[in-house]
Amino acid sequence: MTTEKDDTDVLAVFAMFNELEEDSKARPREQTSPILAAGGWQSNAQLIEDVSRLYFREKDLVVDITYGRGKFWTDFEPPGLVKHDIRGDGVCWSKLPEESESVDVVVMDPPYVAMGGRKTSNLKGMLDEYGMTTTQSWNAREVHDAAVPGMAEAFRVLKPGGLFWYKCQDYISNHRYQPASHWAVTDCLAMGFIVEDRFDLVLAPRPQPFGRNQEHARRNISHLLVFRKPTKKRKS
Ligand SMILES: C[S@@+](CC[C@H](N)C(=O)[O-])C[C@H]1O[C@@H](n2cnc3c(N)ncnc32)[C@H](O)[C@@H]1O
Question: Could you give the 3-state DSSP secondary structure of residue 19?
Fold first, then answer.
């Protein structure tokens, strides 16, 4: 069972990301060349801007299937961006309206926190943000598994050679390391995707909460995985 003690860790990471988004609005950055695999960005929007510099081509059709509040696209928004979200236009990632093999880039940033055992009221903001206002209690693996139909739909709607940008984060829940990025790679490889690239967004570390023993490395990193749908079927 996930304990309230575990919540502190997840909330700290959430707060860190929110502060990061706020901070980055006030501090424009200089783009670096070459584009780096780790660090250098102050927000998801800056990360996405650099990923776009490498992996977005003019006239690409980009579909964000977890658009949320659109924080990914405040620095760069592709023309004609399609914005799906179960709490936005009501589209569930398990049944996308796009035709098969019609999209150049699919972007997915699913919820990544386990909800089990949560009782604290200050979780509401985070759960709202992640579309997890349900009372259902899921463990970390179940939260990941819920996103797998979205990966499969991404594979279906992508053109051969199309790209799937998947945002995720490993974290500590129930006193255990939950390797969500590893699960994502494993599932996407099994579907037929190729791993094309990986960007690591490194955050400023926060101190260990007072009175808590540290059991694992404090998570101050999240990942943007880039998968490619193969252009040709491989011979078995
Ligand atoms: C981490 S947030 C995405 C934040 C977004 N990238 C942004 O920039 O604001 C996760 C999003 O997934 C959405 N979501 C959760 N379950 C979904 C589902 N089954 N189908 C589509 N969207 C879903 C939530 O509504 C939430 O907006």
Answer: helix
pLDDT at residue 143 above 80?
yes
Is 93's C-beta closer than 6 angstroms to any atom of ligand 1? yes
Q: Which amino acid is at 129?
A: E
Tokens linked to 94: 């398990």
Task: Provide CATH code, domain 4-228.
Answer: 3.40.50.150
Residue with CA at minimum distance from ligand 1 atom 8:
71
What pLDDT, on a 0 to 100 scale, did the predictor assign at position 2? 39
Counting Cα atoms < 13 Å in the Cβ hemisphere of 185 gives 13
Residues 6+ apart with CB under 8 A from 54: 35, 197
Atom of ligand 1 nearest to the CA of 87: 25
Is residue 162 lining ligand 1, measured as CB closer than 6 Å?
Answer: no
Residue given tokens 């995985």 in the structure block: 225
Element containing residue 198 per DSSP (H, E): strand 194-202
Q: For the segment 157-183, what is each residue's pLDDT rounded down to a tens digit?
A: 999 999 999 999 998 887 889 999 999
Residue ranges of domains in the chain? 4-228
Verdict on whether the full-model pTM lies above 0.70: yes
Q: How far is the CA of 86 from the centre of ligand 1 (A)?
A: 7
Q: Atom of ligand 1 at shortest distance to CA of 68?
A: 27
Does the beta carbon of 85 sit less than 6 angstroms from any atom of ligand 1?
yes
